[in-house]
Specification:
Keywords: Cell shape, Cell wall biogenesis/degradation, Glycosyltransferase, Hydrolase, Peptidoglycan synthesis, Transferase. The chain is mainly beta. 11% of the residues lie in helices and 28% in strands.
């Protein structure tokens, strides 16, 4: 279900493990439990097969993005099951093109395209006890957003207090390079679709309800998603 209340810079990251550190900053992977070329039509270009994309093609798709404000490294695609590589698939739905549909049972996010197709992305989703379903919409979008830990988390994990004023955007920030903030009836739900640099999280339930895509996939989705876009989260 959705939560009432809003924190403009907070993600739904209520059970973050603060044990990992890297170069003095909190490790992105430790936050997951709490928090390239646009080839969306890859399946139409002959690069995808029934069994998914080759590793060579995946390395191109998920290559480094050096022109970002914080340069994004290449994904170690060997750590991602091939079925979670971005591709275009057949998808029967009555929803309008552009609609985002989250399928937590199968760890996929779909962007509905024209003519019965969809761009499919592999995702991480909420772990047991934090799964939710329902309709929402993209209320706002953020690039390299500031992350602010909720007061409840700071109370449980005092180490997070150092970021009470906000953790600046960057590669170690839990929200990553891009964030779609989900709203319902004008209220921020605290749920997001965000960018992760942890390939091993794709295809697993590790968050407190947020949905994560690889940074390259999230940037692709973000660039094609305007504010007010409908988001449907299916029952798990």
């Amino acid at each position: 279900m959705f939560m009432d209340g809003a924190d403009a810079d907070a993600a739904r990251v209520n059970d973050i493990a603060l044990s990992g550190r890297r170069t003095g900053l909190l490790n992105r992977r430790s936050f997951l439990v709490g928090s390239a070329v646009g080839l969306g039509a890859l399946g139409l270009t002959g690069c995808a097969t029934l069994d998914g994309m080759s590793l060579a093609d995946a390395k191109k798709l998920y290559g480094p993005m050096p022109d970002e404000k914080f340069p994004i490294p290449a994904v170690d695609v060997a750590k991602v099951d091939r079925k979670y590589y971005r591709r275009t698939v057949r998808y029967d739905t009555t929803e309008e093109p552009g609609t985002i549909i989250v399928d937590p049972s199968n760890y996929y996010v779909y962007r509905v395209e024209d003519d019965g197709a969809a761009t499919r992305y592999g995702a991480n989703v909420g772990r047991e006890g934090f799964l939710w379903s329902g309709d929402a919409y993209v209320g706002r979008k953020s690039e390299w957003a500031t992350w602010t830990p909720p007061k409840e988390m700071i109370k449980r994990q005092p180490e997070a207090a150092q970021y009470a004023g906000g953790m600046p955007g960057g590669l170690d920030n839990p929200l990553g390079a891009r964030t779609l903030h989900l709203y319902q009836n004008g209220v921020y739900t605290l749920y997001t679709i965000y960018a992760t640099s942890d390939p091993e999280s794709i295809g697993s339930g590790v968050t407190s309800g947020c949905v994560g895509l690889l940074s390259q996939d999230m940037i692709d989705l973000y660039d094609r998603t305007p504010v007010k876009t409908k988001v449907i989260v299916l029952p798990a």
